[in-house]
Amino acid sequence: MSDNSKKPAVAARKEALALANYISKLEILEKIASNEMSDSFPKRISLPSFCAWTDEPNNVLLVSRSLLYRKDTESSKDTYLSLSKRLEAAFSNLKALRKRDKKKNSSESILHDRLKDSEITAGKYLNQYMMALQEVTDLREINLRQSEQIKRLTAEIAKLSGLNLVRSTKRAKSKSDAV
Question: Would you say residue 1 has pLDDT above 50?
Answer without folding.
Answer: no
